[in-house]
Amino acid sequence: MYLHVPLLLFLLANVAPSDAALFSRGSDRLSTAARHVHRHVIKRSTGLLDDIRLAYAGIRLQQKPQVALQQTKLYCTNNAGKGLAGIASGGTSASNATSADDPGSSSSPSPTAPATSPASVTMSPTAGSSTSPASSAAAPSATGATSNSSSSSSSSPWKVAQSYQGSSFFDGWDFQNSPDTTTHGVAMYIDRDSAQSANLIEINSAGNAVMRVETTPTVSQYRKSIRITTQFSYTGGLIVLDAVHMPTGCGTWPAFWSNGPNWPAGGEIDMVEGVNDYTNNQVTLHTNPGCSMPSSDPNSLDITGTLVATTDCAAAETGNAGCGVRGSQTNSYGAAFNGIGGGVYATLWDDDGIKTWFFPRSSIPSDLANGAPQPDSWGNPMASFPASSCDPFKYFYQHTAIFDTTLCGDWAGGVWSASGVPGQDQSCAARTNVQTCEDFVLNNGSSFTEAYWEVKSVKIYQKSS
C-alpha cells in the first residue's frame, strides 16, 4: 500500500502525539498506522484542540519502580479503545486459580510494557463459551424495551464477545479450590463438582445461575463458598452484569470484579462490592503508582456517587485501598438491591477511562435490554475514572472477571463493630450480639440463607471495527 506524502504530513499534523508515534515503528506497520490515524482524524476533526490538550495532559512521567507489597491483596478498606480485544485462554486449573490476583505471580507480561497492545490483540471464543455472540439475543428485561432489536443492534458498535447465561452459565469459568488467603476471610472456596454435590451452585427453574454460601449450623475453621474466574480475558470493553440477587448480611463480603496479571500491575476494577448490611455499592480501582482521579468533586467528575476517601488509586500508596466511589442509590447493593429484583451493572473501559452505571430492574435502558448498548445515552455514571489522570491501557490490561463471596476478612471483619455507613445504622456486633465476625460466621450457619448470588447473565462486549 502506498500513501501520498502530503496527505501523510497532513494526517500527522492533525493527530495527538500518541497517534503520530505509531509511524515510528517502521514501514511494516505503516498500513496499520494509516488506518488508525484515519479513524482518529474523523473522530477528532470537530474538537481537535481539546483532544490535543487532553492527549498532552495524559502524558505521564516514566512509571516509578513498582513498590514491593506484602504478599496480601485487599479488595478495598473501610477508609470511613478503543483498544478493545479479548483473549480466550485455557484458563488456570482449580488448583492454581488464585494466581490471577497473587502479587507474587510471574506468569504474565511486564507491568510497564504489556506484551501485546490492545489494538492488535485477536479475539476468539472460549471453548466452553456459554453463548456465542450470534445467539445472544436474550437480554435484561426493561421497561419500555421494544420487542424488535434488529434496528437498534445495527446502530450499536458494541457486539457480544463472550456471554455466560442459562444452563451453560458455569462453562468457561475456573473454580478456585482453596481458602481465602488473599483477604484473610474464613471462606473455603470449593471446586465445581464439590459445589454441585453440596448444592452450592445450580441453574434454577428461572434459568439463572445461583452461587451460595454453606449454611451448615456450625463449622470448625472455614465456611464453604464459591469463587469463579473467567477463562476468557479482555483488554477494554463493556462488561454487563444482570443479577437478581446478591449475598447480604453480617459477615458477608461479596464482589463482582476483574483484575489483570501481577496484581496490582495489571489493575483491578471492583464493579460491585460491599460488606455486611450495606445498601450502597462501592466501585474501586487498585493500580500501580501513577493512576489517580483528577478531582474529588462529583460535579467535576460528572458522577452520581461520592468519593470514599482518596483520589490516589495506587495500592502501594493507599494501604491497598485504592480509589473508591460509593453510589448514592440506596438500592444498589445488598438487601435493598434484592428487594427490587436486582438490576444491571454496566462498566465501560475505553480510551476515555473507566465508568460504571447501575440500573434498577425497572429502569434498564431499552438499548441495553435489547443487546444494542449505547453508553453515550445513559447519563452520568455512578463512578468515573477519567483517562486524563489514569491511562486505562497502561494501568489495566488482560483482565478476567470474577465472582466471589468471602466471609469476614480484612473489610467485613474490620468493620464488624462499626456503624454509620448507609444500611449499617447498627453495627453487626450490636445486631448479632457476637463479639467477633469469625465467631458469628462459624457458629451461625442459618444466618447465611441470603448469602447467595442469582445471576441472569454476564456479557462482555467489544467494539466492532
Salient structural properties:
Beta-glucanase-like, Jelly Rolls, alpha+beta, 20 strands, single chain, signal, Glycosyl_Hydrlase_16, 24% strand, 465 residues, 12 helices, globular, eight-stranded antiparallel sheet, glycosidase, 17% helix
Instruction: Kindly report how far apart the N and C termini lie.
Output: 20 Å
Largest sheet: 8 strands, antiparallel
Secondary-structure-derived class: alpha+beta
The helix content, as a percent range, equals: 10-25%
Strand content: 15-25%
Specify the CATH architecture of the largest domain. Sandwich
Low-confidence stretches: 1-85, 89-139, 141-151
CATH class of the largest domain, named Mainly Beta
Round the Cα radius of gyration to an integer and report it. 22 Å
**Annotated CATH topology of the largest domain:** Jelly Rolls
Shape: globular
Average pLDDT reading: 78
Number of strands: 20
State the helix count. 12
* Structural domain count: 2
Descriptive notes:
The chain has twelve helices and 20 strands. With 465 residues, the chain is an alpha+beta fold. It folds into two domains: 5-57, no CATH class; 85-463, Jelly Rolls. Strands 2, 5, 6, 10, 16, 17, 18 and 20 form an eight-stranded antiparallel β-sheet that branches. Strands 3-8-19-11-12-13-15-14 form an eight-stranded antiparallel β-sheet. A two-stranded antiparallel ribbon has the order 1-9. The protein is globular, with a radius of gyration of 22 Å.
